[in-house]
Design brief:
about 270 residues, alpha/beta, Rossmann fold, 5 helices, binds zinc ion
């Protein structure tokens, strides 16, 4: 299921990038080629580029024409495309709301845990005839998380090296009661895209980590309304830092050490 390609004794690094709202892909590579790949009989577009010798496969969550809300993103086909392209590391960007006063808008956070409150997503790559009980003790790739942390340190951005992501369906924002409940349960930030992305990646044996930009306080923390235009303004203010984090991280992925993410899904049960 997971293929390691050795070229002249070194890893041929193939990195998938999943871009969130406002993430300007063209600033990662100097140029891209638009390509398509067939996944489950349907074509999916992506951008292929080179970043100092690293093959980059860039996907935006909004792969269909027109506005695509987070509950309509085709997460499964994006992840299957990554697998077909033999991508071995995925760096995702996302925007999140804070559930705690100490997690401030403008800060970045390297997620390490999640609480899944989604209800209407395709949440697994498996079906009733073929499945696995996959370990999710640490759902995000620790090697990639470390690369992102090193990148944040080097650039000098304010960041949290860990945090619990509460995944919700959206597209509505949360109520004040939900924000309070999520924080009591241990959540630090809330968002609408990491679930099921991180789940599908782990089930497919792909290394996956996300760098999230905090764009607002959750409902009821500051007393203000949560408005999309305010979140968007915060994205525009800080997206350059997110891009810098990714670019710096890419330079270090080529030397990353062996990772065992693909071992988590080795026990496939067939009926
Ligand atoms: Zn990994």
């Amino acid at each position: 299921m997971f293929i390691v390609i050795i070229v002249r004794g070194v890893f041929l690094v193939k990195v998938g990038i999943i871009g969130s709202t406002g993430f300007e892909f063209y600033r990662i590579c100097d140029s891209y080629i638009e390509k398509e790949i067939i996944v489950d009989l349907e074509s999916i577009k992506y951008l292929s580029g080179d970043f100092h010798g690293i093959d980059i496969y860039f996907f935006v969550r909004n792969i269909r024409k027109g506005a695509c809300p987070p509950h309509s993103v085709d997460y499964l086909r994006i992840m299957k495309a990554m697998q077909l392209l033999q991508v071995n590391s995925i760096l995702a960007t996302s925007v999140v709301g804070s559930l705690r006063p100490e997690y401030k808008p403008g800060d970045h956070i390297i997620i390490d845990q999640f609480l899944d409150f989604t209800k209407y997503r395709i949440f697994t790559v498996y079906n009733k005839d073929e499945f696995a009980f996959v370990d999710f003790t640490y759902p995000y790739c620790n090697s990639l998380r470390q690369v992102l942390a090193n990148s944040c340190e080097k650039i000098g951005v304010d960041y949290k090296e860990s945090g619990c992501y509460v995944g919700v369906d959206g597209p509505r924002f949360e109520t004040a009661a939900e924000v309070k409940a999520y924080s009591i349960l241990g959540g630090d930030v809330v968002g609408m895209t990491n679930i099921p992305e991180v789940i599908l990646a782990r089930e497919l044996g792909l290394c996956y980590a996300t760098i999230a930009l905090i764009v607002n306080y959750g409902a009821g923390i500051e007393g203000n309304l949560v408005l999309r235009k305010d979140c968007r303004e915060e994205v525009n203010k800080h997206i350059d830092k997110t891009v810098d984090i990714i670019r710096n991280a890419l330079s270090n992925i080529r030397n990353r050490e062996y990772c065992d993410c693909y071992l988590k899904a080795d026990d496939i049960i067939t009926n």
